[in-house]
Amino acid sequence: MLTAMLSLIAIGILSIYASGNPADEAADTATASRAWQKQAVFALCGIAVFIAMNLTDYRWLGVSSYWIYGFVLILLVILLLDKFVDIPFVPVINGTRRWIRILPNIDIKLQPSEFCKIAYILALAWYLRFRSNYRHFKGLIGPFVLAIIAMILILLEPDLGTVMLMMPILFSMLFVAGARVKHLLIIVTLAIVVSPVLWHFMRPYQRMRVSSLLLQNDKVFEMAKNHPKLATVLAGSRENLMKWERDQGYQLIQSKYAIASGGLKGFGFRKGPYIKYNSLPERHNDFIFSIIAHQWGLIGCAVVFGLYGVIVWCGTEIAWANTDPFARLTSVGIISMLVVQVIVNVGMTLGLMPITGLTLPLISYGGSSMLVSVIAIGILNNIGKWRPFSVAGKAFEGGQ
Q1: For the chain, how are helix, strand and coil distributed in percent, rounded to 5?
Q2: For residues 234 and 154, what is the distance between their CA atoms, to the nearest angstrom?
Q3: Among 390, 392, 366, 387, residue whose Cα is nearest residue 46
Q4: C-alpha–C-alpha distance, residues 125 and 172, integer Å
Q5: Where are the beta strands (DSSP E) in the chain?
Q6: Rg of the chain's alpha carbons, rounded to an integer?
Q7: Does residue 289 carry a pLDDT above 60?
Q8: Per-residue CA distances from 111 to 79, 143, 395 (Å)
Q9: Distance between CA atoms of residues 87 and 112, nearest Å
Q10: Measuring CA to CA, which of 10, 40, 294, 328 is 20 to 30 A from 191?
Q11: Calpha distance 346→360 (Å, rounded)
């Protein structure tokens, strides 16, 4: 698992370097020319935290989980307060308030919503560890309240991607904890029923991110362009619809071209038109998978999926063999988080999922994303090291 993690980190840093430093020196290198250096620093910090975390027993995280979750919620509230009171360490970037600046004179920012994912998993696992009332429909209220509080705060930033991620984490942990499938299906049905109401309150750009799944079809786009009511439903207005071609639509189409042009083997490291020319926005961040496919083709993508598969396999084995409910649920939550992020990010670059801004774990540029992913795998490793398990009916204590 550690080898797979380090390999993915290396692939990410090299891909970020290539996206900002193409082989043709005359090309535009402004996008990510120094980003790889910052990513390497965050990776080293993450590895240091990984080592420190594995020097102690993971069970202290359970005892402290509510305090950790409460602290992260306070950080999310601070971000929202900046809408009413100017807080100097909360920058406004592209109309969103997602980051807290750590040092005043150095551009180092942390994203509380990223850390909320881990804090939420720990708090939910601690809540569910010995309870049985969640097997009744009323017993699901507590877990959903834990999720909804954070989801509302994150949605108001706004950060649609993290909000979409929390529901699969919740459902997977409830299922493993023993919640009845019929109760979970009822909740999914209710969500589908009220979705038109939620759609009405979504901002136009959020609608277009979801509508991109339909708008990338030329026939659907032409229909929306010729029917104002359909354009209003999908994008908020016809004017917003026309912006889609120059914004998210352009980004999505270029991403698909970049992936398809990679073929089987790709163009090679720091080569190819989507490396030479900065025609794919956010190519070092949300759309870095497109750059990997462009450089290394289907073979490179298979290697990346294989490395993620190693982490998922190890995490699943740790959860399966563990007899500690908190450890088992935490492992399931972390694996669910990583799997859903990979599926959504890759699906987003292929036009199969909405453009949500979810990063590719350990690979996409972003200090908070890197730290959270390494911390999550560090927790898995710690659980695997100290886990209590049973063999032939006899109990053993790992790490003792």
Answers
A1: 70, 5, 25
A2: 23
A3: 366
A4: 11
A5: 100-103, 106-110, 388-391, 394-397
A6: 22
A7: yes
A8: 10, 24, 41
A9: 15
A10: 328
A11: 8
Q: Which of 225, 220, 278, 222 is nearest to 254 (CA)?
A: 278
282 torsion bin: left (phi>0), alpha (psi -120 to 50), beta (else): left
Domain locations in the chain?
2-388
Residues in the chain: 400
CA distances from 160 to 74, 315, 358 (A): 19, 27, 9
The tokens for 76 are 């999310």
Cβ contact 80:87 at 8 Å: no
Which amino acid, one-letter code, is at 325?
Answer: P
- Block residue for tokens 């109990």: 395
- Tokens encoding 138: 């009323």
- Tell me how far apart the alpha carbons of residues 248 and 263 are, in angstroms, rounded to a whole number: 24
Residue 294 has pLDDT above 80, yes or no: yes
Please tell me the distance from the alpha carbon of residue 291 to that of residue 280, in angstroms, as a whole number.
9
Q: pTM, whole model, 2 decimals?
A: 0.88
Residue 306 CB coordination number (10 Å): 11
From 24-28, 147-151, 306-310, the region with the lowest mean pLDDT: 24-28
> How far, in Å, CA of 6 to CA of 143, rounded?
34
397's torsion region: left (phi>0), alpha (psi -120 to 50) or beta? Answer: beta
User: What is the DSSP annotation of 318-348?
Assistant: HHHH---HHHHHHHHHHHHHHHHHHHHHHHH
Phi, psi dihedral angles at 100 (to 5 degrees): -120, 125
What is the DSSP secondary structure assignment for residue 135, as one 8-state letter? Answer: G
Strand partners, 388: 397
**Higher pLDDT pick, 8 / 53:** 8
d(CA 177, CA 125): 9
